[in-house]
Amino acid sequence: MSYVSATLRRLVTQRAGEQCEYCRFPQTASLFAFEMEHIIAEKHDGITEAENLALSCPYCNRFKGTDLGSLDPETQQLTPFFNPRLQEWSDHFRLDGGTIIPLTPEGRVTAKILQFNLPERILEREQLITSGEYPPPHPQTTDQ
Ligand SMILES: [Zn+2]
């Protein structure tokens, strides 16, 4: 794993609005530090630059690993994951309470492999919905 400078880490964190760019869990509500996730893993020649990094909660980062996509459970087509640098979250997912409902093939493979809807994760989101912390506001989309 390449070194990510403090400056780059700060940029990625602020750009993400301090929320996981996959499941939108707010870092402020997590006991764990969020991670610099390579959208295209270094194994696949992904670079350690802002355009290939996303802020990720430990769950999403762990389940995604070095994968780039999976087979869409509906069509069995090889499908890339949702890319937070190129795509809008709300085009690919919607919330139903604490459950994240995928809307597209990219959404389906992402929700499945990153295991968005494990019971304990839904429960955590439901608790944050109750306290008004989820979903957090969308970050300003001023991507450079
Ligand atoms: Zn996440």
From TrEMBL:
All copies of domain HNH nuclease, residue ranges: 7-62
An example Gene Ontology molecular-function term: nucleic acid binding
Recorded coiled-coil stretches: none
Keyword Metal-binding found: no
InterPro entries: HNH, HNH_nuc, NA-targeting_endonuclease
Keywords: Endonuclease, Hydrolase, Nuclease
Top-level taxonomic group: Bacteria
Pfam families: HNH (PF01844)
SMART domains in UniProt: HNHc
Stated name of the protein: HNH endonuclease domain protein
Upper lineage: Bacteria, Bacillati, Cyanobacteriota, Cyanophyceae, Coleofasciculales
